[in-house]
Design brief:
Blueprint: H1 14-29, E1 35-38, H2 41-47, E2 53-56, H3 60-78, H4 96-106, E3 113-114, H5 131-141, H6 157-168, H7 170-175, E4 177-184, H8 185-200, E5 208-213, H9 219-225, E6 229-234, E7 236-237, E8 242-243, H10 245-253, E9 260-264, H11 277-290, E10 293-298, H12 313-321, E11 325-330, H13 332-335, E12 342-349, H14 352-369, H15 376-386, H16 388-418, H17 426-430, E13 435-437, H18 442-450, E14 454-455, E15 461-463, H19 472-485
Parallel strand pairs: 1-2, 3-14, 5-6, 5-9, 9-10, 10-11
Antiparallel strand pairs: 4-12, 7-8, 11-12, 13-15
Helix pairs in contact: 5-15, 5-16, 6-15, 8-9, 10-11, 11-12, 15-16, 16-19, 18-19
Bound molecules: pyridoxal-5'-phosphate.
Length: 486
């Protein structure tokens, strides 16, 4: 009974029998056969109901026929439990955002407004096919030699180098040792980054992952799926409707060494509240001092200020400080390449020797999970980023998107002020990027959705891209109405 760390004086001692019972029940629950060795036929008969297999130390031959029948019956009984019965599967929690959008699609009211889109829309409410991306796509398709061939396991390597330049800067790419992997969008980058860290950073199984409260609704799920325990850190002050820097700093400062913090590089989803450059500097110093790991998620580079370089300040600050980091980069919103699932994972390493190992491990994970990333989006974006004229055109298109978002914020606030709504709405213009935390309560957001057909999640998050010059007045009237009447 070494597994029990206990040697019974007699084989019929209750604690001993109870322990056996527990072991056999647990084993059976996991679909195992359980056997016992006894010394005679009487004991064998006694235990026949509890065990699948009974070996008798004495006269085996005399009872082998009897025992054979029992073993067969036990095996037959346990077989059905090994079958996966799909009908007993629990239903996972539905994705609230996708549910909301499905409701919006079904709504036939002519006033309906989608205030929750996750993809950038133009002033006509349409997904914008960026002209630079369109030109690159046309150029690629017209190549007589274009091949729909697999990429290598790491992905489109020249694209990855351009992507790394964009988010980490030219100097880091030229002089640093950046291990990169092409991923399935920003979600894929978060996932593979999480799997990599679980495997190689959380070897003791005691590393916590801290996620901003609130955050992109998928962050907890992605990290939990990689077997991490996730926790929250403060980032938003609901009273001032702005960044809770003191809370954020305190949570970072008290985290255990080695903890991972998922940080939004810019245009925080869902609050639109980012730290200033000075605050990023301060945070990066704390990360360095405390030995924390920065997981920098960047899905909206250029959307906060309209300037791709200014928006990557957080990455620069952490690089400068030499903080251990992973960067997850998405091209969905910033290039309008949603369906192509284009993303990249970058891990700055201290030497070329280390970089080779990191790249090979990332490739090994990728090969097991998806084999290789999709090709077409990487070809398109490589074409954009490697052609100077197309690249500057694309940079100006990112600014067009960011400017439209800022303009819509201003118009909405101007309308609300014109209506003399009792609240102060200035936070909407102070927040940046695609989202704004309006401060509407769950009840008010439900009213907006159910009664005004202006669809928004219970958090009161407004996807500013859902506003257009033709609906902004209506949305302001709805918001004015809900704050006056609820
Ligand atoms: C903060 C954040 N990270 C990652 C993603 C995922 O990006 P992708 O759509 O490229 O998978 C999103 C998308 O909404 C996001 O908001």
């Amino acid at each position: 009974m070494s597994i029990l760390n206990y040697a019974p004086a007699r084989h019929d001692e209750p604690p001993f029998l109870e322990a056996l019972d527990r072991i056999s029940t647990a084993a059976k629950r996991h679909g195992k056969f359980v056997g016992i060795l006894v010394s005679d036929g009487v004991a064998a008969k006694k235990t026949a109901e509890l065990y699948d297999i009974i070996a008798v130390g004495g006269d085996v031959k005399a009872i082998s026929g009897w025992m054979g029948g029992h073993v067969k019956a036990a095996k037959a009984e346990s077989l059905p439990s090994k079958r996966l019965d799909y009908e007993v599967l629990p239903l996972p929690k539905p994705d609230t955002m996708f549910e909301l959008l499905a409701r919006f699609d079904k709504d036939t009211d002519p006033r309906k407004v989608n205030l929750a889109p996750g993809a950038y829309r133009d002033d006509n409410g349409l997904i914008w096919l960026l002209p630079s991306v369109k030109a690159a796509t046309a150029a690629i398709i017209s190549l007589p030699t274009y091949e729909h061939q697999y990429l290598g396991i790491q992905g489109h390597v020249p694209f990855l180098r351009q992507a790394a330049r964009l988010i980490l800067g030219d100097v880091a790419v030229e002089t640093g040792h950046i291990a990169s992997l092409q991923t399935s969008g920003g979600t894929g980058a978060c996932h593979t980054g999480a799997v990599f860290l679980k495997k190689f950073h959380d070897v003791g199984g005691d590393v916590d992952v801290f996620i901003s409260n609130p955050s992109w609704e998928n962050h907890h799920a992605v990290f939990q799926h990689a077997d991490f325990v996730t926790r929250s850190y403060r980032c938003y002050n609901a009273k001032t409707r702005s960044l809770d820097f003191a809370g954020m700093k305190a949570d970072v400062d008290t985290a255990r060494r080695g903890s991972i913090f998922v940080l939004h590089v810019c245009a925080h989803n869902p609050t639109g509240c980012d730290p200033t450059d000075e605050q990023w500097d301060e945070l990066s110093r704390i990360f360095k001092r405390k030995g924390l790991y920065a997981f920098l998620d960047c899905a909206y580079q250029g959307f906060a200020t309209g300037d791709l370089v200014r928006d990557k300040y957080a990455v620069e600050a952490f690089l400068r400080e030499g903080v251990d980091m992973v960067v997850a980069q998405s091209f969905s919103k910033i290039a309008g390449l949603y369906g192509e699932r284009l993303g990249a994972l970058h891990i700055p390493c201290r030497s070329e020797f280390a970089k080779v190992r990191v790249v090979e491990q990332l490739k090994a994970i990728n090969r097991r999970e998806v084999s290789v990333a999709p090709r077409f989006g990487a070809d398109i974006m490589y074409h954009v980023l490697s052609d100077e004229a197309l690249k500057s055109q694309w940079i100006s298109e990112v600014k067009i998107m960011s400017d439209r978002l800022s303009d819509m914020r201003r118009r909405l606030v101007a309308e609300l002020q014109r209506l003399n709504t009792s609240c102060n709405w200035e936070h909407i213009t102070k927040q940046r990027g695609m989202f704004s935390y309006t401060g509407l309560t769950a009840e008010q957001s439900r009213y907006m959705t159910d009664e005004c057909h202006a669809y928004m999640p219970p958090s009161g998050r407004l996807s500013v891209t859902g506003l257009t010059t033709s609906n902004v007045e209506y949305v302001a009237r709805c918001m004015d109405h809900v704050v006056r009447h609820t």
